[in-house]
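[job 4471] stage=fold_predict status=RUNNING
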Amino acid sequence: MAEICPNTRPNRPMPGEDVSSQLEPAMAPGCVDAAGAGASVDVVLGRNGGMAFMKRLSGVVQAKANKVLDRVEDPRETLDLSYEKQLEQLQQVRKGVADVATARKRIELQASQLQASANKLQDQAKQALAQNREDLAREALSRRAGIADQLEQLRVQHEQLQAQEEKLVITTQQLQTRVEAFRSQKETLKASYTAAEAQTKIGEAVSGISESMSDTGMAMQRAQDKIANMQARAGAVDELLASGALTDLTGSSDPLQAELDKASSSNQVELELAQLKGQLAPADAPAIAAAPGASDAGDAEDAEVVDAPGAAPAPGADLFSLKKDGGA
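[job 4471] inference complete, writing structure tokens
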């Protein structure tokens, strides 16, 4: 481990002192400056921390981006894009087959031209021999030999191109079959996805999970709550009005008159009840009422007063009640 060297910075010189005498010894070989070592460690740690932060940030961004893409991605569009890419690849393979066939045809044309030249040179050699010109015949045959070498090279290239063309044709057929199968599978998957999506939407609409149905249900619940609150408030107001805790502004504001009206209403109810009892009682009701075992003498007298024709009205009876009874 390296030794930490003392500070080598010069002290502040006093007036009149030599600056060189204030310098401390230089660092020994193998020792490390404490300030420089700390700075280096801080730099390294800072770099590592920054790299870790950036790596984590990149991972979070990628996760969020994948989640957003999964949400907006439509499998039908993805399948259509894959089908288009396969069609592009098939088109490239077909273009490659056409290029190889063109090169093969060009070689065939060159071979035909060279073969025609070789035949011509063969005829010229025969003519030269006929004219006893062996030198010309030898020259013609030499050229014909060079053409024969070229034809051999073209033949090899032609065979290679032909084999490559056959392989590309087979590859094109296989790729065409795969593309057609993928197209059928793609349409099936798209139909299945569309049916599943429609079924999901219908199920959500029926069960009330969808947003529109949820909003409608919430609106109905709020309306029911408001109706219940209004009914409870109306009932509470009626009870307060009946108990007198609240004043009915539409009626009399005099509490004495209210008490008189209440007593008059009670007397009217008692009078009508007595009249009903008299109408329902038999003809000998007064005798039975006067016999021993009757409940009360006062009750018998009240019955006789009620049954007697032309009896005077009860004290405190309302005129409107008397008119009503006479009319009856």
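[job 4471] summary: The radius of gyration is 61 Å.
[job 4471] exit 0
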